[in-house]
Amino acid sequence: MTSVGKILTKHRLQGAGLDSALPYLMLAPAVMVVLCVLVYPLWDGLRASTQAYRYGAVSGWIGLDNYIRLWSDPQFLNALWVSVKFVFLAVSIETVLGFALALFCLREFKGIQLLRTVLIIPMVITPVVVAILFRLIYASDAGMVAAISAALGGGNVQILGDPFKAFIGLVVLDVWEWTPLMFLILLAGLQSLPQEPFEAARVDGAGPWRTFADLTLPMMRPVLAIAIVLRTIDAFGTFDQVFVLTRGGPGEATKLVSIYGYDTAFKFQQTGYASAMFVTVGLIILAMTLAAVRLLQTGLEE
């Protein structure tokens, strides 16, 4: 081989090596961002959960003591129970309403595009703005609920001052804001279903309910599972709305784990204990997600 041929061969090999490394070089900035934004805070939170803090400074390593302390803390157990009730009730209602709206908007009629657009408006409003809006609606002196009650001859309505009503009011806020998300996911799932089984069902004379029970619901089970899991994970992290609307009150009626953890970390300066709290809740959510995925896989195999 001549010297010119050797030089060309060398350049081809170098070009092939660069081509194989190019995808990794293109991904490197995104990987660095993920490491900085996601992995490092997670690692720092795990590290902080094994340490004791005094007046905001580390006072020593205590291992798993913070995690053990959690399960004897009545305030944490109450906050966890309130969070579970809130998530279960809100996500259940959002799923049912979102599915019903998706089924209704699946049909084509005049104005359907406008209706679909209007339905997703609550989802795109900033959570803090939504909380302020509902705080004005629930106000006992000049709120919309109080005005409606007065017009109907009712008495003064105390929503944010009553533990049960405040909790229900928080659920109503969450349902109003996040039902559009379930609606969008489920509508996309319904629009992607194959039409041949439904046409065959119509030929066989199956009614709407039979078609829904035997075809739509079973075929939508994977989409439903994904939507519920995503919304459940997000609902456990609800903070903005509660902080603006009730700050966990009255009493501890709406004190979710996010609010209790915030108070623990920033009001009482117990950063390690708060970190252990959030790590524990994260592990609970992870276990629930894995269980849901497992059930989904089992259902698909059947």
Keywords:
2 strands; MetI-like fold; mainly alpha; 76% helix; 302 residues; globular; 13 helices
Can you tell me about this structure?
This protein has 302 residues and is mainly alpha-helical. It has 2 domains: 46 residues, no CATH class; 235 residues, Orthogonal Bundle (MetI-like fold). Helix content is 76%, strand content 3%. Strands 1-2 form a two-stranded antiparallel sheet. It is globular and about 75 Å long. The N and C termini lie far apart (63 Å). The mean pLDDT is 85.
What would you say about this model in short?
With 302 residues, this protein is an all-alpha fold. Helix content is 76%, strand content 3%.
Detail the topology: elements first, then pairings.
Elements: H1 3-48, E1 51-54, E2 57-61, H2 65-70, H3 74-105, H4 112-119, H5 121-124, H6 127-138, H7 144-151, H8 163-191, H9 196-203, H10 208-236, H11 240-245, H12 257-267, H13 271-301
Antiparallel strand pairs: 1-2
Helix pairs in contact: 1-13, 3-8, 3-10, 3-12, 8-10, 10-13, 12-13
Q: Compute the gyration radius: what is it?
A: 26 Å
Gap from first CA to last CA:
63 Å
Give the uncertain stretches in residue-range form: none
Strand line-up across the major sheet? 1-2
* Helicity, as a percent range: over 70%
Question: What is the highest CATH level, the class of the largest domain?
Answer: Mainly Alpha
CATH topology of the largest domain: MetI-like fold
